[in-house]
Amino acid sequence: MITGASGFLGDSLCRLACVKHSVLAIYHRHKPLVPDVRAVQADLSKLNNLEALFKTLEPEAVIHAAAVADVAFCQRFPEQSRIINSELPGKLARICRDLNIPFVFTSTDLVFDGLCPPYSERHTRQPLGIYARQKVMAEDAVMQNHPQALICRMPLMIGVAPHDSAYHFCHHMLEAISQKTQLNLFTDEYRTPVDTHSAAGGILNLMDKTGGVLHLGGNTRISRHGIGLMMAESMGIKPDMIRPVRIDDMKLSTPRARDVSLDSQKAFQMGYKPMDLRQAVQRVVKQFNRKQKL
Prior knowledge:
alpha/beta; Rossmann fold; about 40% helix
């Protein structure tokens, strides 16, 4: 069972998982566009209905990828987003523990404050904003309710959104570059991005091999400005529209960690092999161009 199945990561998880497994794709508003999966609409914020959902569907393993991932929204509406981001993961973990089935929770590199990179699984979490604090609370609830669960801390992910209403920074960057409209990108905010295909493959390949916390970052530490330049190069467009900016130059409503690069050596040693970032960007650009022609 994959929650958030119509989301950015969930779509890739469904497409890869259905090759070897029967997949229950849980969605709220947008039905997954993935063949060979059983799509099930459910409002997971109705926490009292979860046991009945599990009794009906009888999943044998759960990957929980659903979240309110809009950082600004979480900052403005902390109580509304807390139910999905903090309470739901712990509830799902407890149900899976009681049923004695595997549970995987997707967390974020933003649980760190960006002051002591690169971050391994052993580093102390220091969340800056509401979204990051909600994810820390969720991690604690998952481990408390299902000690054998796997928490995958995900980096910034690149890819093409599965449906038009799924806004994502990657689509925004690609669209601005292709239309040659001004694009402000930070030169001093660093991550270790990975494409959604590699991220999904890592989760599926490692979920039966380990538990606890695991980092699934990419091989390249890069700024958003660097990603934008890489995209423009792959699109064959001069990056004249890309304007370099610094975090302190912008009036931001939410605090931003400057460098949450992940040390993913533990996952690498277990067989996690994310695609080279430049190759991943080229692949995403091709997907974007195909979608634009439809």
